[in-house]
Write a structure and sequence with these properties.
alpha/beta; binds magnesium ion; Rossmann fold; GTP binding; six-stranded mixed beta sheet; P-loop_NTPase; binds guanosine-5'-triphosphate; single chain; Interferon-inducible GTPase 5-like; Immunity-related_GTPase-like; 50% helix; nucleotide-binding; globular
C-alpha cells in the first residue's frame, strides 16, 4: 500500500498537476493526443535526387524491403504516394513525384501535388543546386508553409572529391556554402547534408532536431517516437519522450490505482498498457526485424546500446 502511495505521488509529480482529478483529465488528453494527431511530411525535389530513398530511410527501411517506396535510376515515382510510418500509423510520409519532368511541369507542380495537404516539406536536391530547387523553395514560402533543404547523396560527393585529395570537411563546407548562398534571399532556410544510405553520417541528426523544434508539441512527440534509432542522442531523446508519456498511460489505464480513487477505474486497462508497450517496443527497434536490419545497416555500438536499453533495469516500462 505504501508503495502504491509512492507511485501515485510520483505520477502526480510527473503530471505537474496539483490534484489527481486534474492529473487524470490531463492524462486523458495526453493519451488522445498521441493516438490522434496526424503528421503529414512531404518529400519533394527534382527527379532522381533520392526522395523515395529518403522516405525509406526515415521509415527505417531499405529500398529492397517489402513495403518500401520504389526507387530507381529512371523516373520512378509518378504520383504523390503516402507511406504510413511502419510503427507510428499517425505519421505519414508523402513521396512526391519529381518536379520538372514531362509528367510534372514546374508551373503546375504545387497544385498537382496538392501542397495544402502537408504540414511541411523537405526539398531534396543532389549534386548541383538547380533552378527548380529555388522555384520550389519560393513557392512553398509563398504558400506560407515551411521547408527544410536537404542535400542528398552526400556520400557520393564526398567519395568523388576524396579521389582528388579533397577532405570530407572541405567538401561538406563547399556544398553547404553553395546551398546557403543560393537560398540566401529566403532567410536563409536551414540546409542539411545527408545520405539516405548512411544516416549516422553528416547532418541527419541536425535535421531531426530542427524538425522537432518547428513542430507544435503534440506533433513533436509523435515525430520523435517514429524516427529510426541512429545515434545515442536519438535513443536518449526517444527514451525521454516515452518516459514523459508513461505517466499519462499509467494514470488513465488505472494501472497504479489499487486504492479506490474517485474518477479512476479500478481495473487496469490492459489494452491501453499493451498498446503503449507495443509502441515502445517497435519505436525502440527492439523487434527481431528491426534489430536484424540495424545490425546490417549501422555500426555495432548502436545495436549494442539498444540491447542495453532493453536488458538493463529501466523505469520506463516498469
Ligand atoms: N549513394 C547514394 N545513392 C542514393 C542515395 N539516395 C538515393 N540514391 C540512389 O539514387 C537513385 C534514385 O533514387 P530515388 O530515391 O529513386 O530518387 P527519386 O528522387 O525518388 O526519383 P523519382 O521518383 O524518379 O523522382 C537510386 O538508384 C538510389 O539508390 C544516397 O543517399 N546515396
Ligand atoms: Mg521516387
Amino acid at each position: 500500500m505504501a508503495d502504491q502511495q509512492d507511485d501515485l505521488r510520483a505520477l502526480l509529480n510527473d503530471s505537474g498537476e496539483p490534484t489527481l482529478e486534474r492529473a487524470i483529465a490531463k492524462a486523458r488528453e495526453e493519451v488522445d493526443r498521441l493516438d490522434n494527431v496526424t503528421l503529414n511530411i512531404a518529400v519533394t525535389g527534382e527527379t532522381g535526387v533520392g526522395k523515395s530513398s529518403f522516405v525509406n530511410a526515415i521509415r527505417g527501411l531499405q529500398d529492397t524491403d517489402e513495403g518500401a517506396a520504389p526507387t530507381g535510376v529512371t523516373e520512378t515515382t509518378m504520383e504523390p504516394t503516402m507511406y504510413p510510418h511502419p510503427t507510428m500509423p499517425n505519421v505519414n510520409l508523402w513521396d512526391l513525384p519529381g518536379i520538372g519532368t514531362i509528367h510534372f511541369k514546374a508551373q503546375t507542380y504545387m497544385k498537382d501535388v496538392k501542397y495544402q495537404n502537408y504540414d511541411f516539406f523537405i526539398i531534396a536536391s543532389a549534386g548541383r543546386f538547380r533552378e527548380n530547387d529555388m522555384m520550389l523553395a519560393n513557392e512553398i514560402k509563398k504558400k506560407k508553409k515551411n521547408f527544410y533543404f536537404v542535400h542528398s547523396k552526400t556520400d557520393i560527393d564526398v567519395a568523388n572529391e576524396e579521389r582528388k585529395g579533397v577532405t570530407e570537411e572541405e567538401t561538406l563546407q563547399k556544398i553547404r556554402n553553395n546551398c546557403l548562398e543560393n537560398l540566401r534571399t529566403l532567410g536563409p532556410p536551414p540546409v542539411f547534408l545527408i545520405s539516405s544510405h548512411y544516416l549516422e553520417r553528416f547532418d541527419f541528426q541536425e535535421l531531426v532536431i530542427n524538425l522537432e523544434r518547428e513542430l507544435p508539441d503534440e506533433k513533436r512527440d509523435v515525430l520523435v517516437m517514429s524516427l529510426p534509432v541512429y545515434s545515442k542522442q536519438s535513443l536518449d531523446k526517444k527514451y525521454n519522450t516515452f518516459k514523459k508519456a508513461a505517466w499519462a498511460v499509467a494514470i488513465t489505464s488505472g494501472a497504479i490505482a489499487a486504492a479506490p480513487v474517485p474518477g479512476l477505474s479500478l481495473a487496469c486497462d490492459v489494452a491501453m498498457v499493451v498498446s503503449f508497450l507495443t509502441k515502445c517496443y517497435y519505436s525502440f527497434g527492439l523487434d527481431d526485424r528491426s534489430l536484424e536490419k540495424m545490425s546490417e545497416r549501422v555500426n555495432k555500438p548502436i545495436l549494442q546500446m539498444q540491447l542495453e536499453y532493453l536488458l538493463l533495469p529501466h523505469d520506463l516500462c516498469s
